Amino acid sequence: MLDLVQNHGIDRVLRFNREPRYGKPQAAGLGQVTAGLFSSPLSFVQISVVLLIVAVLARAQVFGSAVVNVDEQFYLLVGGRMLHGALPFVDIFDRKPIGLFLIYAAARLLGGSGVIAYHSLALLSAWGTACMVASMTRRVAPSGAALVAGILYLLYLDLAGGEAGQAPVFYNLPVAVAAWIVMTKSATATERGLRGPGLAAMALIGVALQIKYSVVFEGLFLGGWLLAVSYARGRAIKDLAIDAVIWVGAALFPTVMAASVYAMLGHFDAWMFANVFSILHRGSERPETVAMRIAAMAALTVPLVLSIVARRWTDRPTHEWVRAHLRFIDWWAASALLGVIVFGTWLNHYALPLFVPFSVAVAPLWTRRWGAAWLCLVLLAVGITGQRLLSRHSLTRGTNADLAMAVSAAGRFQGCPFVYDGMTAFYDVTDSCLPTTRAFPAHLQSRNERGGTGIDQVDEVTRIMAGRPARVMSMEPAYPEENLAARAAVYRVLRKDYSVLYRFGRGPRSFVIYGRRD
Question: Does the global pTM surpass 0.85?
Fold first, then answer.
């Protein structure tokens, strides 16, 4: 059978072993139609082309939007200011690693405003990750299932804020490649060990860590799996210890290099606070807000979790190497889920890393009639819901036209504007100075950021307003998790010295541009 696998490929082998399940031809139902939809083997090139088309279509609705997400507006702002000498964590505070801002700085170097560039980079990253999902799936299921898995990943991104350039869209790719290395190489490991493949995988995890630190949980799993497999294959304890040191060093190297550069510049304390200590000083959100966010994240993931349970309950692969791959994928999915739970930030985009292992883990259901029907229903529901969600975002978050109208209404002004709440892209398109090192709006007005950024929110907004910024952007009314004391400090001055220049918004909250009355 091993010769058959090597000579004829997994598609033929899996069809050979699974064909008896289907029996004699029957009247075609939904399960039969869908299961046979990709019955002919698909090459990896064919799968990749289809996935690229799906990636483009899934993101077309928001491609090129400068206001698609407030996080990404800020990342692009920081990337652009870096090209003019600003130093993240010192001149502009945030707790994301430097690697994420370097991606956005690279996008600015590609020309224009950087919006099309970073959207293009994110599209390529999402497509590359989907291809890796398909590649891993081809090891445990036919090529039709691999295509379905890749499509599932791409469509799920739209449901959890991954329609453009959120951090996980970028770091999922190196993590997926690292997981592919570990999965494929550990299956053929000998007592000689996995030092080389492990070094490559952990180096990729190191790169991902400098995009977002939450990757640490998946990195720990991959490192633990490498050690466990090496030990089971008879690797000597001394050699295992050397392997562990090399792998940990590879994973930490990019972070150590970033810290070293800041130390040489005399800003190690700023780097350490932003990258390590600030997260420990963040406050908690209201229980009802946390419960609502957990429910939303559960709604995203429960269909996939139930699909994995159903697959494990019903599917019994014939070949040990297929079972070994599935064990790896299931443990990877569990570790990613544990990371989300332990991290405890219940925003939808924190679920984005789950969709890589989950999409692979559910794909073998495609070989069963009921499973194929179920996966098609999930794809249909996720695709439609995702596109409706993107359409709604254009109403609540604004559009490029809204931003252009806001800039036009703001007119010509001197000095720094102040985006208390709203679009940080306003700083970018007006090419204006920043009134504070805490330019991300939530850092100055979110309840859970009180004490988390190293400054007092009320004191900082009071200082800014005392400087009489020429224009102030806000959103009205206040949102439930806002620090109302900070808002009161801003609006005391707005009511006294400012007039409304422009108000726009079709959702529950409106963007408002205030101008100083001279």
Answer: yes
